[in-house]
Amino acid sequence: MPRTVRSTLKKKQDRWGLVFAAPSLFFFAVFSFYPMFSAFFTSFTNKQALSLARPKFIGLENYSYLLQSPDFWNSMRATAVFTLGTFSALVVFSLLLSALVSELRVGKKLFQLAYYSPAVLSSVVAATIWLLIFDPRGLANQAMNAVMNTPGVDHYWFVNPYKEQFSTMLVYFWKHIGYFVIICISGMASVPPSVYEAVRMDGCNRWQSYWHITFPLLRPTVVLVSIMSMILCLRTFSVQYLFTLGGAPERAINVITMNIYFTGIRFFRTGRASAMSIILLIIMVVLTWLQFRVTRSEEVNY
Amino acid sequence: MKRFIVITLILLSLVGMTGFAAGKQEAAKGPVKLLFWTHEDKNREVLEGRFIKEFEAANPGITVERVLYPSVKIQEATLAAFAANQGPDFFNMAIEDEYQYIANERVAPVIPEAAGYANMQAIIDAYIPKVLDPVTVKGKVYGLPLELTNWCIYLNKKIFRDAGLDPDKDYPKTWEDMMRVSEKITKRNGEIITRRGFDFRYPYYLVEMVPMVEQLGGKIISDDGKQVIVGDDAWIRFLQFMKEWGPHGKNLGSPTYKASRSVWNFDKDEVAMTSTGLYQQGRMRTDNMAFFNSSDWMVVPMPQFKDAKKVVAQSYYGHYYLVNAQKPRDNQFAAWKLIGYMLGHAEDYLKEVSLPQPTKKLMASDAFKKMPFSQVFADDMARAHVVYYGANSAQLQKLIQAAVEGVMLNNVPPEKALETLKKDAKDLFAN
Predict the structure, then answer these.
(1) What is the DSSP string of B65-116?
(2) How far B83 CA lies from chain A's nearest CA (Å)?
């Protein structure tokens, strides 16, 4: 095909591509980019939610206040603890459970359904169910006391700060593990069976086949799962919020999203809340970039 | 392609920047349609639904759309709407949440002739002293109270008798009594409480707990407004009391148990006493009519500390109807007219929903006097003051909550909790 004809065809294709992409680009710009840019500008002002006065430009004052605020650093700590604890468990267990479920000869669908079912519940419903479980007279104390033979002991799920943090992680893990297991199972299903046949003929056992074949070939799925679960954990809000409404002390689980909510919605300080949102966004972008760098995720060729 | 995206983003950002300057009064256009936001309350919903229908029939040019929100959600929904200059025509919330709307001039003063009064002074004269203070700025009244609530102690006599106590003689007069009586009533399975004597209403630190500090001589803010968290001894004694109340002390209650007010009505041997308002009687009728009609409950005043320096009852708070200042004048007039019409049925609110409107007429009426234990509430109100409200009230409540949770649940020494509270409160007022 002559060069000029090819170039015209490409331009034509590009134009149609733009037409098809335009609606989604428009919605993305309006509902994602615009709020981000708006929050970015607002973070340099003293905007109060209800004030009709034009907000004053105050430069980096909001950021400087936050960096010196023990409350903000407590939120950073709570977010880091929650993210590390939940994200690592989600990645490791989604790989393990997906491997186990894939190996099942009977009841495979049943297990997939069982793991996935909490994911269809809203976070509010999930948190409400677990609030009842962690009530001093609830199932958590009863089960622990039955297993440990310690009748009448209150395990202080919401009183002890470590257990309180663990409780929020458990709820999140329970709610989201099924979703990531399904993604991993789909990743495993995309590995051609001929690869397994070849390694079996070479004398590999199941563990060797998983460790040397499945796991490396699952790298793109692992990267996807780790990035998605990390972003999900950094954005956690409803479980912590509902637990505090249910009487759990706020300090230990005051994650950054909850601090943003209180600062912006309850205390009307939109400028300061926007600055926190921008810091959270920067953390997410940096961590995602780091994950890409570390895992060096390229397309896998079989 | 890249240029397209960049231009789109710049345009959107500029639109966002212009949003900062918005907030002018809308122009009137044709028939009036009022949007009314309020919190859920099964009994009040029916009553006000009836008033709205009657009002619409009597005023053919006006239609009303009422939107109900859960009481914990209405604050954020209203704030988000007002921040985007899309607030409802009129709404109601507790004064601690409403104050910012008045301070930021987002609500309009009452139009006396629309609300059924001759002038502003006639409105002030119709209500009992001080109740309009939180909504009065420079002589103009910005809200009319749907209710004014103070809390007393509701007591289940059956549980008292079951614990070997005589409710009429042994009801707690002091906080020390409250602890002693609760120790007798509380039942446990090991460390787990299965029956409480009394428990606090933990989210409401300004309403319920600050008066306890004031009894001991402490204050939130000094009279000259220069010092926050005043009276170290009073605050430490209060925090020590809360520490003893919680799981690290005598284990009589905790925020982690189900709210005492919501279980008290059901008379299921779970809690003997709870603090709540006159409105609880309407909810008792709905939840457990047999218990309401029985003689197994009574209401007693809020306890005082044995060596209280000042007699203070639990703070009262109000829900006021406010009207959006950005709406056209016709809508504001119609909104005040409807509010005036609804509040003109004060006795219906009292009889059907147990919500007392603080008008002089209602407080002196037979309807109020005939309400069970209404005199206990009236007497306690005379010893109380309005809940602390101000630009920082929500944040201050959160700081007091952190101090109480610290001593009760995390075993923080009261002195240490007070030190943190004072430092954080000082920072709050400085910023």
Answers:
(1) EEEEE-TTTHHHHHHHHHHTT---SEEEEEHHHHHHHHHTT-EEPP-HHHHT
(2) 5
| Residues in chain B within 8 Å Cβ distance of A249 | 255, 402, 405-406, 409-410
| ipTM metric | 0.80
Whether residues B107 and B73 fall in one domain: yes
Query: Is there a domain that residue B358 lies in?
Result: yes
Residue B14 lies in a domain: no
User: What does the pLDDT average to over A166-189?
Assistant: 93
Q: B395 and A55 in contact by Cβ < 8 A?
A: no
Chain A, chain B: beta-carbon pairs less than 8 Å apart: 125
User: Which domains, ranges and CATH numbers included, belong to chain A?
Assistant: 56-295 (1.10.3720.10)
**Residue B420 structural domain:** 152-314+392-430
Strand partners, B195: B187
| Strand B144-149 to B152-156 pairing | unpaired
Residues within 8 A of B (CB atoms), A 84-113 only: none
Please provide residue B207's backbone torsions phi and psi, each rounded to the nearest 5 degrees: -75, -45
- Interface mutation vs chain A, best among B69, B192, B243, B421, most A CBs within 10 Å: B192
Asked if B156 and B114 sit in the same domain, the reply is no
**CATH code of the domain in which B161 resides:** 3.40.190.10
Mean pLDDT by 10 residues, chain B (431 residues): 54 48 56 95 91 96 95 88 94 88 94 95 92 91 93 98 97 98 97 97 93 97 91 97 96 94 95 95 92 97 96 94 96 97 95 90 92 94 91 89 94 96 91 72
Query: Is there a contact between B258 and B266 (Cβ–Cβ < 8 Å)?
Result: no
CB contact under 8 A, A48 and B202: no
CB contact under 8 A, B20 and A55: yes
CB of B86 within 8 Å of a chain A CB? The answer is: no
Taking the Cβ of residue B119 and every Cβ of chain A, the question of whether any pair is shorter than 8 Å is answered with no
Separation in Å, CA of A237 to nearest CA in chain B = 15
Tell me what pLDDT residue B296 has: 97
Could you say which of A26, A51, A246 has the minimum Cβ distance to residue B104? A51
Distance of alpha carbon B338 from alpha carbon B38, whole angstroms: 14
Q: How far apart are CA A139 and CA A136, in angstroms?
A: 9
Task: Please identify, among B382, B404, B421, the residue that sits at the C-terminal boundary of a domain.
Answer: B382
Q: Is B25 on the interface with A (CB under 8 A)?
A: no
Q: Is residue B102 within 8 Å of residue B112, measured between CB atoms?
A: no
- The candidate with the shortest Cα–Cα distance to A287, out of A85, A83, A71, is A83
Neighboring chain A residues of B100 at a CB cutoff of 8 Å:
50, 268
More confident residue, A108 or B227: B227
Residue A301 has pLDDT above 70, yes or no: no
Positive/negative CA dihedral, A267, A268, A269, A273: positive
